Amino acid sequence: MPVLAINGGKKVREKLFPAHNPIGEEEKKAVEKVLDKGKLSRFLGCWHEDFFGGDEVRALEKEWAEKFGVKHAISVNSATSALYCAVGAAGIGPGDEVIVSPYTMTASASAALVYNAIPVFADIEEEYYCLDPDSIEEKITERTKAIIVVDIMGQPYDADRINAIAKKHNLIVIEDAAQAPGAMYKERYAGTLGDIGIYSLNYHKHIHSGEGGIIVTNDDELAERLMLIRNHAEAVVEDKGVTNLVNMIGFNYRMTEIEAAIAREQLKKLDDLLQVRLKNVEYLSREFAKVPCIEVSKIREESKHAFYIQALKFNKEIAGISREKFIEAVNAELAPFEMRETEGVKFGCGYVRPLYLQPIYQKLIAYGDKGCPFKCPHYKGQVNYNKGICPVCEDMHYEKVITHEYMVPSMKKEDMDDIVAAFMKVWNNIGEIRE
Q1: How far is 160 from 116, CA to CA, in rounded Å?
Q2: Residue 155: CB partners within 8 Å, gap ≥ 6?
Q3: N or C: which end of the chain has fewer CB within 10 A?
Q4: What is the CATH number of domain 25-266?
Q5: Which residues pair with 198 in a beta bridge?
Q6: Contacts for 172 with CB less than 8 Å, ≥ 6 apart
Q7: Has domain 5-20+270-351+394-434 been given CATH number 3.40.640.10?
Q8: pLDDT for 175-212, tens place per residue?
Q9: Pseudo-torsion of CA 101, 104, 106, 107, nearest 10°?
């Protein structure tokens, strides 16, 4: 009987796993083309024909809109910037509340703070980890102005129910689809299900340009405001004839021509890369199901998941040990990814700690030292960030969820076989750890 690596035995795999690196010759040629032109950006922060950027930026926006079937696509320098633009364009400000997810990247919630609004955390679905419609409805007050939904891990949110709630209460729906390009809900692309959608082109996403983000909407007025906030709105509104000055303090969230050129080539690869990812998930799910203490997470009905990461559920009663000890033993059997060696083996317990437990929410300190916006005189509510406000999220994070990234397109069957072998080795020798 083999000895587990955690106890000094031989590892299942010493060799690094192949890096997810979709950058190829096409991107290199596109960059060279931009360099040969010598125009690395063509944005001007004033009302001018170059207010909208250069040729590559405009071409990317046109191609993205066509791909996802939307009227407007606006490029920015990150998905975080995209979220900030979306909150600003929605007219959110001091005293307002925005319902957000506790189980996501921090900017999906802190985007509300940028405009001195209050993030209100609703709980998540136990099966899908997206915002729970019932919890959303419980958190709505007369101060609520928007819902920021997240297609977490690549799973589309419950658009029918949440959009109906938003319509009932006259709320804007901002869809964070950073992890879900190509995912679908009832034949519609994730990112196009709400009033405003955002995508990420960060380096470890499905496709990337190093950094970057795309905002989409079918609303002409929102599109105008998104573009203004992206590029020094306050310097542009007078000449452009804009009279609604709410949140018209602009920023420099502009994408460069090089990033846009890379993103254009990456967009062409999205469907093929996603198909490989889904095929890998199908294989891993079938094999993980053979481990009695592991349950493969579900996909929402009538949806196509994009699997930025895959979530598994751990049953400690069946295992007879903690999730943390089990994953520690699995990780000891495996190697990290190439290009991400310092991050360690990419099996983790939980995803992100519930965001409301961050110091900014626990201490109620954001702008200055007076407690703004939480204690701002404009805010007439009383927000609660105590542990326990989102019990499903806390249970999933601290007790059940395991996440991994070993379905990326660079993984071949022989690579995934090593992943499965590590799980089976730990399960078949679990007595070593129990003792």
Answers
A1: 29
A2: 128, 129, 130, 180, 183, 299, 300, 303, 305, 306
A3: C
A4: 3.40.640.10
A5: 176, 215
A6: 90, 92, 145, 146, 147, 166, 194, 195, 196
A7: no
A8: 999 999 999 999 999 999 999 999 999 998 999 999 99
A9: -80
